[in-house]
Amino acid sequence: MKYIVIGGVAAGAAFATRLRRLDEEAKIIIYEKTNFVSYANCGLPYYVGDVIKDKASLTLQTPESLKKRFNIDVFINHEVIDLDKENKSIKVKNLKTNEEFNDNYDKLILCLGSKAIEITPKKDNIFVLKTVEDSNSLKRYLDENINEVKTAVVIGGGFIGIEILENLKERGIEVLLIEGQAQVLTNFDYEMISFIHNELKRNNVKLFLNKMVKNIKSDNKKASIYLDDETVISTDIVIEAIGVRPNTSFLEGKLPLEKGALISNNEDFSVYKDEIYALGDDTLVKSEIDNEYSYIALANIAAKEGRDLASYLVNKEKHPFKIRALGTSIVKVFNLNCASTGFNEKTLKRKNMPYSKIYLSPFNHASYYPGSDTLNIKVLFDPTSYLILGAQIIGKEGVDKRIDLLAMAIKHKIRGNELKDLDLSYAPPFGSSKDPINMIGYMIENLKNKYVNQFYLSDLNKLINDSNSSFVDVRTKEEFDISHIKGSINIPIDELRDRLDELDKSKNIYLICESALRSYLASRILLNNNINSSHLAGGFRLYREFNEAELDIDKL
């Protein structure tokens, strides 16, 4: 059996090496367009920033190592330019010699990956960051012009844009970020992004939001960027990090594509009979939550798909379902770690899926142990089944552990209120006796049992202007005097029982505290005294962060 794999990196290399481990007799060929067949592309921004100093450490396998260890024939700098699926043939171009030739297959595995979206072609001091060659080119330019490159503009506030701007700052370069939407990192909801925007500002990154780039011109080591509002920005270098699209252009008219991506309605990754299969960034993947297709270009998904397809083709290990994705991801933004999994609120609204949400801000480990810090957590869940639909966490240590637990809970259909029962490791340097994951369970259980009512930032403008609303801030007088929501009165939680007669019980009472813990306790005091109330989800901390980020509350 002859297998031809188009593309290496995550999906192609994972498929080919797994196939060899299961089948010693198969003939396996990889054609790779670039000069590198298997590399850690997620590490490229950190190589540019000199965080990763050894370029060789980013190369996971070479053609030589794959041949010696796995008996796989790898042809780098070879681009597949045409497909004849009826005759099971591909046309290949040697990019070094321009020679073209045909090759036949029994099984064709498409691991075409994605390509960077560009406003203007790469040249001089205008770069993208998608391949090893891209990172080598950018790093070489920075090293050779170390005294001249003082400013950089990054276009695009996605993962790559955020990672490269941080690494440029590490090299002492002033950075301006242009983003076409109202926020960076659109996998996070608008109010949660306030923590990230503020962190960028603390590190002197200039943000140009809701701005579209019309044109870029380069002249004598200076670049000019023309925006849609007629602003012109001059800079030393430009990095285009607008996003990626499936690298499938040569398949148009030959295989079915949806928004440029391959899509299989089968459970075995096939896109044409049992002869052509597709993996990784050139495909759509089904969601773990609602089983609908979406485009998620993540290396961990691609690698899992490669392994699973090889197992299926050799041993017919039919899985009960194809790989399902949650889009679980994490990115470092200076001193913050920012992670998400599942659907965000924007997606749930777009899909017309009912949901409820909670916010909490527990410590990452025992507060009395040195180095504790706050985790800012948002969890979305089904209001009927209490199954978790998505989560976002922003903080320092412990973000990755908690987001992975929540991804596991979504995958295995653990209900939100059941998180309280998870037996998680505890010692003061690592967590608390009530882990943040357990706390999520307690909070959802309280809502399930109607022990508390919530209101949200998005409700504030309407409620503040409602004469039937009464805002009660239960923080200390000192906290209240520093800053508070206009129109609120201050009754500290520890005085509340003795001052119940000061409440205007003819109005709807809305409770506020720093993190929503004291306001929850206050709501229980009121309810036990037959007084109904709601408390601000996320607390004054979220309100303050949102205002400091200068975000628009009407967009919530």
Beginning-to-end CA distance, first to last residue:
56 Å
Largest sheet: 6 strands, mixed
Q: How many E-type strands?
A: 36
What overall form do the CA principal axes indicate?
globular
- Order of strands, main sheet, comes to 5-2-1-9-23-22
Stretches where pLDDT is under 50 for at least 5 consecutive residues are none
Structural class: alpha/beta
Which terms would index this structure?
14 helices, alpha/beta
Q: In words, what does this structure look like?
A:
This protein is of the alpha/beta class. Helices cover 26% and strands 28% of the residues. The strands form 10 sheets. The protein has a 6-stranded mixed beta sheet with strand order 5-2-1-9-23-22. Strands 11-18-12-13-14 form a 5-stranded parallel beta sheet, with helices on one face. 43% of the residues are buried. The model has no long low-confidence stretch (mean pLDDT 95).
Concise summary:
The chain has 14 helices and 36 strands. The protein is of the alpha/beta class.
